[in-house]
Task: inverse folding
């Protein structure tokens, strides 16, 4: 295990140094989530072995503890020589730029960060996905850049996106910033000196031609020049960061424009509110400024708050966006979880900071956030208790130039918050309603002549609500049969009691499996990673991503990149989420996601027998006793998704597809949970010691983070053939991995 990658390499000599300094330092680093290598073989007195050399090459940060007798050992002098000889771009300019961007709240993806380059030339799917998801690409063109076919392929792919306007929509087309690192732009443009592509081993004429075109186009872009011998690092890095931030802000402008040109005039409304917010905040000297966005569900409050947040957050020291606060607080996570997120985002703390309860959380927020200049968005607040727990501590502690934006359907919430200004969002005008609907239904500003009359009737039924116009319009896309339009309009007329009934037409138009996928997302997969969601859906329905694509095309879900971790996640607008859950409560009654639905649904025997998906928290005690008791699981023959926090069962079900069990108490997975159909298993922070992989031939996603007692993954009798994701972070004593996993 010596040659694995580490965050920190600690070089030291002598047992006293190890006891008094190194053990304490390495312990503190590990508690912060960093992996550390400490050279415990220092007393062997041999030259640096190949595995030590490999560890040095793959480590990111080096700490050398210079004790009085350090220089008397050739072993440690050799280590220092190895460490000081590492002068590649990643460990110098790139690592510094990465750290500064992270401190600014910008999430960078550094290709192959902390690893040696190797000879691999083909871009894997993770790299391609990262390239496509990033809004700004910073390319360091160093002297040795063209020695890597991988780097050349990355440049070709990035520049191909730039040159293919039909490949991506305008809002996702990235911006490219070349940094000429000890090379001249002309050297890159004409492939001279070190950039002679004929010297690239194993390359074809076709490959060299493509790389030459990409490098030529890249060198013409406005970039930055960096000379390691003469440039003052601090000034140049400040210039790099400023350029990246400016590019991101320009991209935010384009994203907002692309989202609202056709529809709603959101850009103009956003600019008005943004101008008002900045004007008020700049003049504030006594307390933070609170702004309210007030309006009925589906009118665009969340969309507007999100666009303003994206535009303004870089103006503040810290920022936090809480989407769907009402839902997040009420569904088992609680106010304390949101309080932890506020601290994590504004102070860059870990989210597992200890907070005893809501009152303690208020006190921690008040004391630790004093004079922090921050932007905070609390979306969908409808409870004064939530306001007191989350907003009051901010008001009493944040810097007077801070801004809090609250979106709500209740005017009283903003009165209690004493908002500086309230912006009321009304329904759309008739003309704007037509523009939005026609864009989603026909992808053009006017409908076909034969559908003009019926489409106006449908627009009227949507009552000026942007969400309804968008979803219903997408439902009619590519539907040219006039009779279909008339039947759908009759349905809307007959059932139009509230926005749910208007949105329901889009749900009813889905295929059966699409309906099931949508309900699974509404109940369990909101804000989950796209890759995890795909693995769950593939386990349940044999395919995943095509369903997500179809639901996104119909405007029933969206996908976004989480700025905190760079993960692409699933989002559902709260009105659509509530509609989906209401369908489950009133009709399907086959999913349980919180204590209230457990109380309403699990007491009915027929519902129990048909139950497909269930989330169990510590307080869920239904079904005539504790629902987590093993005997009750015989009554759940259709159960395929199980999310648990508590004790365990032993009754076996072959239907399980997704098992999430945080802090599971067992040392080996109980027989009752060993379903051969499981595709996703998450057991982080659990007591498990051994996992027998032969029980899970269809497993694709395995998360065992922080299972500190885990010793081995056993595949002696077989294992999954298509494991795509494995997370063993902070599994510190694991001593055996199957060969097929180690080779991946």
Result:
């Amino acid at each position: 295990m010596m040659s694995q990658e580490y965050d920190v390499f600690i070089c030291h000599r002598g047992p006293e140094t190890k006891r008094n300094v190194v053990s304490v330092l390495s312990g503190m680093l590990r508690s912060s989530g960093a992996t550390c290598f400490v050279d415990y073989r220092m007393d062997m007195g041999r030259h640096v072995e190949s595995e030590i050399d490999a560890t040095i090459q793959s480590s990111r940060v080096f700490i050398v503890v210079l004790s009085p007798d350090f220089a008397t050992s050739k072993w440690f002098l050799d280590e220092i020589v190895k460490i000081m000889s590492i002068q590649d771009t990643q460990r110098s300019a790139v690592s510094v730029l990465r750290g500064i961007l992270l401190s600014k709240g910008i999430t960078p993806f550094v290709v192959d960060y902390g690893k040696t380059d190797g000879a691999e030339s083909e871009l894997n799917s993770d790299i391609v996905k990262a390239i496509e998801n990033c809004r700004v690409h910073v390319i360091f063109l160093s002297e040795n850049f063209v020695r890597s076919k991988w780097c050349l392929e990355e440049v070709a792919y990035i520049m191909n996106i730039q040159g293919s306007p039909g490949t991506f929509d305008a809002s996702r087309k990235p911006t490219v910033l070349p940094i000429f690192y000890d090379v001249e732009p002309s050297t890159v443009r004409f492939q001279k000196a070190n950039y002679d592509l004929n010297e690239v081993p194993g390359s074809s004429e076709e490959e060299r031609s493509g790389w030459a075109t990409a490098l030529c186009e890249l060198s013409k872009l406005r970039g930055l020049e960096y000379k390691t011998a003469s440039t003052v690092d601090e000034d140049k890095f400040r210039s790099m960061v400023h350029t990246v931030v400016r590019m991101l802000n320009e991209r935010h402008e384009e994203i907002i424009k692309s989202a609202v040109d056709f529809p709603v005039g959101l850009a103009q409304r956003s600019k008005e509110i943004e101008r008002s917010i900045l004007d008020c905040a700049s003049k504030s000297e006594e307390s933070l400024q609170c702004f309210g966005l007030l309006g009925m569900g589906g009118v665009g409050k969340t969309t507007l708050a999100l666009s303003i947040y994206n535009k303004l957050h870089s103006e503040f020291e810290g920022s936090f966006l809480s989407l769907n606060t009402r839902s997040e607080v009420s569904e088992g996570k609680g106010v304390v979880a949101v309080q932890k997120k506020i601290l994590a985002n504004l102070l860059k703390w870990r989210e597992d900071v200890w907070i005893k309860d809501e009152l303690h959380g208020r006190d921690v927020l008040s004391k630790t956030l004093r004079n922090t200049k921050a932007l905070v968005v609390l979306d969908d607040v409808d409870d004064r208790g939530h306001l007191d727990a989350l907003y009051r501590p901010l008001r009493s502690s944040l810097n007077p130039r801070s801004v809090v934006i609250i979106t709500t359907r209740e005017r009283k919430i903003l009165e209690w918050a004493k908002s500086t200004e309230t912006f009321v969002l009304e329904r759309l005008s008739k003309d704007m309603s037509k523009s939005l609907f026609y864009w989603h239904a026909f992808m053009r500003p006017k409908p076909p002549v034969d559908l003009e009359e019926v489409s106006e009737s449908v627009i009227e039924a949507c009552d000026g609500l942007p969400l309804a116009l968008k979803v219903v319009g997408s439902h009619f896309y590519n539907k040219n049969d006039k009779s279909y339009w008339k039947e759908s309009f009759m349905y809307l007329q007959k059932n139009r009691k509230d926005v749910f009934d208007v949105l329901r037409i889009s749900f009813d138009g889905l295929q059966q499996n699409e309906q099931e996928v949508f309900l699974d997302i509404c109940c369990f997969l909101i804000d989950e990673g796209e890759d995890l969601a795909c693995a769950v859906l593939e386990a349940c329905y044999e395919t995943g991503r095509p369903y997500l694509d179809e639901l996104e095309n119909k405007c029933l879900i969206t996908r976004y990149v989480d700025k905190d971790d760079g993960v692409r996640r699933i989002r559902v607008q709260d009105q659509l989420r509530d509609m989906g859950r209401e369908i489950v409560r009133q009709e399907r009654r086959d999913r349980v996601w919180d204590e209230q639905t457990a109380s309403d649904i699990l007491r009915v025997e027929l519902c129990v027998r048909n139950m497909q998906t269930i989330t169990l928290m510590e307080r869920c005690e239904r079904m005539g006793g504790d629902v987590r008791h093993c005997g009750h699981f015989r009554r759940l023959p259709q159960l395929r998704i199980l999310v648990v926090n508590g004790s365990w069962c032993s009754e076996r079900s072959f239907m399980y597809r997704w098992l999430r069990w945080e802090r599971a108490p067992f040392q080996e997975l109980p027989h009752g949970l060993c379903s051969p159909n499981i595709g996703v298993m998450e057991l982080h922070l659990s007591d498990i010691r051994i996992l027998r992989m032969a029980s899970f031939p269809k497993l694709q996603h395995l998360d065992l983070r922080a299972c500190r007692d885990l010793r081995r993954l056993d595949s002696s009798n077989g294992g999954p053939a298509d494991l795509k994701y494995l997370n063993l972070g902070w599994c510190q004593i694991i001593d055996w991995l199957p060969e097929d996993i180690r080779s991946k």
Observations:
- The CA atoms of residues 245 and 462 lie 40 Å apart.
- The two ends are 15 Å apart (CA to CA).
- The first strand starts at residue 8 and ends at 11.
